[in-house]
## 1
Amino acid sequence: MEKVRRNERLSAMLKTLSDTPNHIFTLSTFCEMFGSAKSTTSEDIDILRDVVTSFDLGEIATVTGAAGGVMYRATVRKSQARQYIEGLCKQLSGTDRVLPGGFLYYSDILSDPLITRKMGAILATEYFDDEPDFVLTMETKGIPVALTTAHALGVPLVIARHSSKVYEGSAVNINYVSGSSGNIQTMSLARRAISKGQRCLIVDDFLKGGGTAKGMIDLMREFNVEVIGMAFVMSTKTPVRKRISGEKSLMTLEIASHGDDQEIAKVTPAPWLLT
Amino acid sequence: MEKVRRNERLSAMLKTLSDTPNHIFTLSTFCEMFGSAKSTTSEDIDILRDVVTSFDLGEIATVTGAAGGVMYRATVRKSQARQYIEGLCKQLSGTDRVLPGGFLYYSDILSDPLITRKMGAILATEYFDDEPDFVLTMETKGIPVALTTAHALGVPLVIARHSSKVYEGSAVNINYVSGSSGNIQTMSLARRAISKGQRCLIVDDFLKGGGTAKGMIDLMREFNVEVIGMAFVMSTKTPVRKRISGEKSLMTLEIASHGDDQEIAKVTPAPWLLT
């Protein structure tokens, strides 16, 4: 094998690390990949750490000990996150996206690969330290952002369904009261999807009354799984009192009247982003 | 600003390019980012192209002309793709994952961030040249792989629903006959989700009779959108004649009897991967 130069090693190393985020790679992995010595690889990592920091591309962390090594985290600084979310709020505010009944159209935002990737990185940044074992979402609209959050955290995504499907095998079903409609609905999750004692981060697209979120917490209780956090893309300003608390949303939505027969959406960054 | 060294520039450049795949960055973007001359940036790109190729990390392409620049594509070589899919087939084959009724449990695979990312890159590799404007999927299980495919292709994801929702606004509904159950079902898509004359790549998790896929084609016809391709994670061996043709699947599923009262799943890479 030809000798690999440092600039080649660094770029291939960062690509490899960032493709599998929050996952520890041993130094040996890279020594073998490039045919270089441990001391050289350590120096490479030091340089990479500075590059990533100075260009705001996330974070390179080294983990010491027997199971040690190096990993990449797609962390987003609070100021960057705020700026990004402010841009989204601007895009979503106004009268264009308000639908009859006071709903906001933002399905396009929720399934955009680049936007959900950024939102996932922002949410993951808040939950690295809580070390969730998986991300849980309830079908359908929250799936993309839940997937990108799970990717950034280096954990699997688990999707609860509205009813149990034959191709999911034996399942745990719970009933919950939908916050918006007041109707009783069913939430279902395959038994083999998760294990007792795991730690769960709930990620979903929309929080209004909190009925669905409360249902997800109840569902996790049935599996003896601890919910370590709840994150949402959008939270409504009212009702102020929701059935859950302690959640982090990215944006707050208020629909206000705007002249005769018209409504306007006011979307603002969530308070925790402004501190 | 301190002078940025080549090894720093290259890693930051590759990270930036690969975070937004199949998107043309002008040379000026990087000249400004690093405070370097155009000639230097061109040399950087040449080195990066070789690095990416020699470590099988995808492809760096330069585009000439007024709208020219450089872009990253997460292309996967056929031999690599085959090897990866063979690994998945091994994991899915056997008796463990067969559910009553002859269904295969693979929801965990379909929502794993790393696996869906790889599957998305493999599928995108087949459709770069067809230049789709968006990826269409039908809720729910195909959403993660459709998202990763869309990300690799640098286009939005559009999700069709089982019924029109109030928060999606005016919608186009079509009825289709589900291949597996023979029941008539409804498929719905918000009018504002796509525009007339666009090109669509359909990506979904499962193909059996082809009823749902046929429904998606009909839905696109209503929007005057051309379907340029159809890709699936899993296709069943029977029925051999499906309602659609020309699709690419990653794996083929056969459920066979395996002694008394037991069934076994035989999952194999799709034929096109073996050529």
## 2
Amino acid sequence: MGADLQSNTYLSPGIQAMLPFLYAAWSDRHLSVPEIQSLRREAGKLPFLTEEDRQILSDWSDPVHPPSRERFQQWLTSGRRAAEDLPEDRTASLAELGIWLGLAAEDEPEAKTTFWQEQLPALHQIEAGLGGIREDTYRALFPQYDQREKLHEAIRESTVDPAELQRILEGDHAATIARVREILLRPSFERTTLRIKEDYREQVLRWCKELAREGIGALSYPREYGGQDSMADYAAAFETIAYHDLSLTIKFGVQFGLWGGAIYNLGTKRHHDAYLEATGKLELPGCFAMTETGHGSNVRGLETTAVYDHENRELIVHTPSVAAGKEYIGNAMHSRMAAVFCQLIVNGESHGVHAVVVPIRDESGHTLAGIRVEDNGYKLGLNGVDNGRLWFDQVRVPVDNLLDKYGGIDEEGRYVSPIESASRRFFTMLGTLVGGRVFVPRAGLSAAKSALAIAVRYGLRRRQFPSESMRSETIILDYPNQQRRLLPLVAKAYAVQFGLDHLLDRYVSRTEEEMREIEAMAAGMKSYATWFATAAIQECREATGGKGYLAENRFADLKADTDIFTTFEGDNTVLMQLLAKSLLTEFNKSFQEDGNIAVLKYLGRRVTTIVTEQNPYVVRQTDREHLENRSFYVSAFHFRARRLLSTLGSRLRAYIKGGMSSYQAGLLCQTHMIKAAEAYVEQLVLDESLKRVEMVREQQHLSDGLEPSDGTAATTADLLEKVITLYAAHTIEGHAAWYLESGYISGQKSKAVRKLVDILCAELRPEAGALVDGFGIPDGLLGAPIAL
Amino acid sequence: MGADLQSNTYLSPGIQAMLPFLYAAWSDRHLSVPEIQSLRREAGKLPFLTEEDRQILSDWSDPVHPPSRERFQQWLTSGRRAAEDLPEDRTASLAELGIWLGLAAEDEPEAKTTFWQEQLPALHQIEAGLGGIREDTYRALFPQYDQREKLHEAIRESTVDPAELQRILEGDHAATIARVREILLRPSFERTTLRIKEDYREQVLRWCKELAREGIGALSYPREYGGQDSMADYAAAFETIAYHDLSLTIKFGVQFGLWGGAIYNLGTKRHHDAYLEATGKLELPGCFAMTETGHGSNVRGLETTAVYDHENRELIVHTPSVAAGKEYIGNAMHSRMAAVFCQLIVNGESHGVHAVVVPIRDESGHTLAGIRVEDNGYKLGLNGVDNGRLWFDQVRVPVDNLLDKYGGIDEEGRYVSPIESASRRFFTMLGTLVGGRVFVPRAGLSAAKSALAIAVRYGLRRRQFPSESMRSETIILDYPNQQRRLLPLVAKAYAVQFGLDHLLDRYVSRTEEEMREIEAMAAGMKSYATWFATAAIQECREATGGKGYLAENRFADLKADTDIFTTFEGDNTVLMQLLAKSLLTEFNKSFQEDGNIAVLKYLGRRVTTIVTEQNPYVVRQTDREHLENRSFYVSAFHFRARRLLSTLGSRLRAYIKGGMSSYQAGLLCQTHMIKAAEAYVEQLVLDESLKRVEMVREQQHLSDGLEPSDGTAATTADLLEKVITLYAAHTIEGHAAWYLESGYISGQKSKAVRKLVDILCAELRPEAGALVDGFGIPDGLLGAPIAL
């Protein structure tokens, strides 16, 4: 080959530049007259061809004298070698090859770079003029051509059907989701840019009313009040609305979930009869007035009071100080009523927090006497939600307005409650709040899915050099760095959904005994999912560059609207500490209950771990089979969760034994607590994801028994397993320092995990389009021009 | 002590609750009559006191019979023990202690929690009624009381004077910064909420004009055109404006830096005379029309053409296709002229990219013939900047409009250039763009500083339980988790500034030979600083919870406006790869030039590293002295930078040797390249930061020789050294997995580094207020109500 190339060296730069064209022209061993004419005519205009060059070109394009086999092979070899050297961003074009060959043949290539660069348009013209160059020609010249073509095909046809993925994600609620989607795609829901909050809020109110008219708001209410009695369908509707507009989602949640939920869960039949149907239809807009400025997360310490006046059978609702005002209340500017949480005082005795329905506006929207409302003003996002502050000045309402399911006032003016323990009563009432922690992360996940769908589609379609004369184009997602940015997030979106689905199932079918556990789980999943949403949307914005910064491409709103999700319904760092404390209580309880047996069991498990997972061989094992095996990564997740919790317990005990107060000890372990809680959530997410993969696999086996298999479902299960493996490997990679410190993996194994993430990203790259289409977000809701 | 407590156990819950009050009442061994009356009267109303309890209370508050020393001690012991058990968020109050004691004495505490909780207001009233309880009493009861008081003091008086820090940060440009600050604090610069982009843009234009009238825009121009000839002062002004409004900052940069910079740097005297003074005064608004839709980062491939017509001595500027339109051009809607970058074609020959001044609007603002302008619409942020798209349809301008410093057309119509090499000419012209990469990260850093100042001040001042009856309050920044969130970012802000200052110095005093190196450094620092800004502002928003979500507290704009900084002036991931390639070239060059000596040197350094840094003792060394020693962390930074670069080189060589094209090999190493570039930047930032610390220390020594030292400057240098140590330790912690994988540190050492970060955060907590005040942002510019 060296000799072949050598024999080309006498050729001038100009002729070198023409070789790819000569090769292409002769590659089917036949040159048409128009082709010859085009080639010679265009070549005549080229400034870099000398008279001598033109003569050679004319000889070599003489149809009567085809080139010798050797010469033809030389042209191919030169071209192919140049193709290998083509710098980044260059694509399969003869023009590019010609430039490269010409430049390389110059005596001082640096000085001639611009000159040759500027010849590109003319050479493109010649390439176009040759017409009908066969794919084979490109394939022969460009070593990566085949692979690229495969990638193009992969976009068009990945190995799975997105509809199949969508079926799995939507589960039993496909019908509800489809119905809500249909409504959101109506012309009346068309998005417009409304920068002034009052305009935007009016639009969101109109949208919310339309959803209410269609019965979507009442889905979780009993049938006799216009509902479907299905909390799960309500959740499905809620997360689907989040594909459209997050202000609408939150307002919808406040009206039907919080206000309606308070009436339904804390009220009795007379309240249901009076308010529920009108609430579901949004004929009665209401708000949930719990939080106070001075008591962000301390519900028990609320200062608003409701004093019972037996003579008039009335409650006097009052805000004792400015700081006791109700803060950040959604729907505050549109509501006619409020469920006000306050200390109930009967006969001078306080019975703790109860909710009272207080009318705040008349039918024409005027604020009633004794009510003060203040707009919260512009926020970072969610400006379509009318948040406000509320104060009550000795406002009198009939005692019937007390939502008295768990505590009321009888005819004689005595406080009565079916729950004796004030503490249990309080926590039972507070159970209505947990719903928010189950639903909000689903809306956050929807936003992340929208962002990922937009960024991945943009990554699959964008051409960096879109000039028409080029045949092939660079797909952004072919860059490993872009794969690294987006694919682990796509995988995590699937895993998080499986975790949230489990939480929802548990929540919907909960018993009272399970509530504490479910509350802790909800606290953890809410934090994990909303942190994920914030990070994923940010990464997508950056991955789409300047295009992603234009409001029309939706990252502006997705980012801004979801940013508060990590704070509301409980600040994530606080929630994670709550979860950790709950886990610790369980952990300690099991020790206390089982006594020495528990200790032996625990030690036994540690010994087993050391033998099976932490032996020197496994710690260093780096083969792909091992790393992709569930036994490795599931064990790693469980090990981390277990170890972080037990070391947390030990640390706390040691501090307290050393004379520290439990408060101080807790402070010192804050970061540790958050990590332990995160590890628990990750273990849950992984376990539940793998269960879902198995369900998909089993369904396939079942249908295999009934009818001839087309192999679809098996492939889907395999793909999902790979997705979850990526989630697992990427998560372990993120905690690599901890695993290394713990001696659970060696440095080599840590590198191998990183490499596995690279490989899985590359392997999932052709499936990326199907994976985001599987989210089932219609183009009309996705909206972003760069994704369409 | 057990016995003492035992002897209390016969007391009823009610009396237990009163013990702290009894202790306080008797703590000065003297009970006034009003105190006795208040205590007895209020106690009479308490529902939890039995008749018997009241009798005991009456006995124990009999002024004639003070308690025995033993009994008094018992009260203290009980109270103190309860104080230690107080849960989170409770503060030093007798009322809280009473509740806790009463509850603890109940048979079934769980059932009574709410009941006791509800006694809090009444007990607070008693506490207030006792009047003038001495600090000593609180100090005796609450073990942490002293420490808390110390922290309070620390906020008021940290060990350094913020003005001293400010002096260091502002350096030689204090006067310019002060002057710009004074202008920005004028009533005319008051911020208002302008949601509609047209309104906002008009306001920004007005502000920009006022700055121009004050000569701020022209700072970098020669004196004869109204300037000060100081690029560094221009930079100082630019970063100060970023404390006010980032749309203004960017528009200011476009008008004076990009448009004015093009005139000044690419034009000749006739252009300077014609445009520069009017540009500096903003009487002539202009824009910098380089980027095209189809060629985001490929300036050489721009498609807009300027064809020379010798007959009329005119240039015909033309956009050949829609995709060749100029994209995202700042100032596009307000400009009267544009510096249009296009391929210059003379006599049918292209001479590469040149800039031509093209009038686009007449004096009354109407678009001229042949010009099409389109608004880019709403963006995620920076909506006060009028970005637009531009197309030219055969627009004729006199040949004099060609900015011809590096290439022009002579009287005979021939292309002439002082730089023969087209390539060198191109890169010289492009040098004007690098300024943006030097200035933009400074604006990003200003935004991060604003966010940090707001979040830290909020963390220092917020009281979680602000009810008036409580004497002490919880400071959010006392939570270790909050310290962890904010203090490493404050430290990094200092380090990044020192790095950026170095870059600016190099840029301002650059020679042509240094340009390549400075360009690479600017690419890296721009990426590092803007990524930092995005992350820091996000963390600050989350750390301030719901308050941080209100637009008035400024995170909304800080986040949205800076989000594009990671993309514009070059996408960060692309820039980092550029830097890596440049580093690799240098690395390879030094090998080639020095030949075997270089190899030996390199191997020698590796051997030295292995002996001095990677020996088993050092790898496991965990004492604080070692970890805080520069020799540890500087070596660690250098090791990482060196190792990542040399392994990058090896990997690339191996791939290429194995038959891969350099394009493919580069793709596979993308992530590695970015990491290598990051390590280089971090090493630079650390080295330059330590140099600055030394400068501060030396100045102190100098002034020591002249006058008696008050110890201030020495403390400042020590504080700065601690700040940089935190930056170093936190950075190493972030790369812990890599250091562990490389065997550079052991698992124990990795844990010790994490612990060191905790300790440094706690130690810097009392300095946090001074550190952010040192940024020198006046309250009037900080603006956020939560920070004031």
